[in-house]
Amino acid sequence: MVNYLIRLYMICCVYLMSFFLVGIIRKNNLSCYGLSIYSNVVRLIIYIVVNEMENAILIPTYSEHFHHNVNFLESINEFCDEDGIPNVFFVTSTAEEANNLTTLIEGLSSKVKENTFIFDVEENFNNYKECIEKNRLDMDSPCYFFNGRSGIVNLKKLAGLEQVFLKGFMNVVVLDSEVLVFKKSNLLRCIEKNIEDDIYRYSFAAHNHELMTKIQYDSIRSVVWSFDNRSDFSHSYGWYENLCIYNKDKFFSFLNFFSDRCLDGYNIVVSLAYQLKSSAFEWISYMAYRLYVLEEKFDFVCVDTCVMSNYKGPIIMNPQNENLYQYMTGNEKIDSDFLSSFNPPWVPYTENINTRKILEDYLPDSCCLMFHVDRQHPGVNNPQPEVIIEKESNIPTEEPSKESIENAQGLVKVNMIKNFKELIKRIIN
Fold first, then answer.
1. Phi, psi (degrees; rounded to nearest 5) at 265
2. Strand pairing partners for 200?
């Protein structure tokens, strides 16, 4: 009751302040642009007070992805009630990009515009490019991976997170631009549920992919020099299996951990973006920090065992969530059991009407997002024949057993040995 009265008092203060400032703006004939800026500030303050500054979404973007950003906001407008819309922040590299995106969303409904904010990190972006040019001889530099594109994304995420957290939010979910809401849902509650669960989902099979192995190892060794490469975290991959969630206190602790490595003339965000090893993903490094430095205990879920519990066939040596639809049969009973066991926090994009119907009916309420809307995911457009798959009695259907995890690890080892033999043959021949 006390908290409610305090919040009510603060809202009244904000409204009184709004009348006072509007009077000043009109008296001094300030521009409509100034009035617009003021309006944005006031509604952000009101929103934050009402929602106790809890959770937000951050999306790094650039001009070629603006249409995805607009589509995402339109999907929120279509599928989310007003009380289920979180604050959405878009971060761009330059002020020009931020202005262009602002113009694009002007035509959207007030329902989503009221919770959407756009800012740029141009100063950090320019400093980062300068830093990269000065250190091109460092083979661990981000400029050696995808021509530096991932390093720029890391920078925008880190700089964007810093700004959003400084506004007072406690948790931030970072999403890629190529995402949308695909079913009726309370997006705010979906985010809250994933934050509350604090689960790290991983796949041993995905780690078999050499690119993902490099990403995982570079992300970890950006934080610690020595680690057990046989542990579940280091010997697996979890990028597609999780939403990238950050906590305010842990994020600033993460930044502070790198403060003694800060480069002369550059702030900590620019320094960290540069010092993450060439193919590192900042969220995996953040999770490595939580695990190896803070020594946190959070729930681990092996998604390989979820697949093996409900699918009779070879497991795919790639991220399991990205290949989700290759495991679906078209049989509603089998697919619903599979989805219930797999329980993903989000799913890859599909336009397949039958698949969407099953997803909407059997996925938990906390899963309402589709990722990679710009890609054709394996199995999505292929015919899905009805197949009856008998479950073996010794395969668990609920809690993953030690044996099932060992089976998943064994499959990875067998495949690695096979690849190694083929490599030796090529060398000999």
1. 85, 0
2. 300
